[in-house]
Design a protein that fits this description.
Layout: E1 5-11, H1 16-35, E2 41-47, E3 59-60, H2 61-69, H3 72-87, E4 100-101, H4 105-117, H5 120-135, H6 144-153, H7 158-162, E5 184-187, E6 191-194, H8 199-210
Parallel strand pairs: 1-2
Antiparallel strand pairs: 1-5, 3-4, 5-6
Helix pairs in contact: 1-8, 4-5, 4-6
Amino acid sequence: MNRALRIDVAFDFICPWCLIGKRQLELAVSQLQEALPQQVVSIDWRGVQLLPQLPAAGVPFAEFYRQRLGSDTAVRLRQAQVQEEAAAVGLQLDFSRIARMPNTADAHRLLRQAGELGSPEQRERLLERLFAAHFQLGEDIGDGNTLLTIAETCGYPREAMARALYRDGRPFLRSGMTASSVPHFVFDGSLQLSGAHPAELLLRGMRTALGQPQRRSLQA
């Protein structure tokens, strides 16, 4: 049996490129396992809080990006670019429904707690649900009650998950992995790749980590 391939991914819930990168990674894993049916792949999504300085209640989303990019026109152009890239991997992002840029510290704590209480498949459902809450459903993932309701829909006990939340905006700190940008992929603890790269490049990274020969079509 092939040894398991471990992939660590640094991410934040408010980064659309992390969700896009997740879809590209899923495609790459599918392609790898099509070629190597017995190959086991273990993926650990490791939270990195991009904006730890945000207040616990977050800030108005539209104003945040207006100040960050300089104008409403610049915001529209950037969002259109992101939506186009998302659509290419089957995602529909609805920025118009996002009222606040949330502080994601408790969302990361919730996902970490989920790893201790549930199965990997259940944690994956929660991860997907939290991404959808922010980018598609307009739910405030900085709000503790919203987080707990989402966790319950994924089968987690509310009381146990509530113990993971601080609700005061304290930064989320997780040891063992640092990244200056997200998404950031680490294959087998050594080979690293930053950015929402196409599945082709992620597949090449996985094959390199496994010591597999590269197909001609994967060579840049």
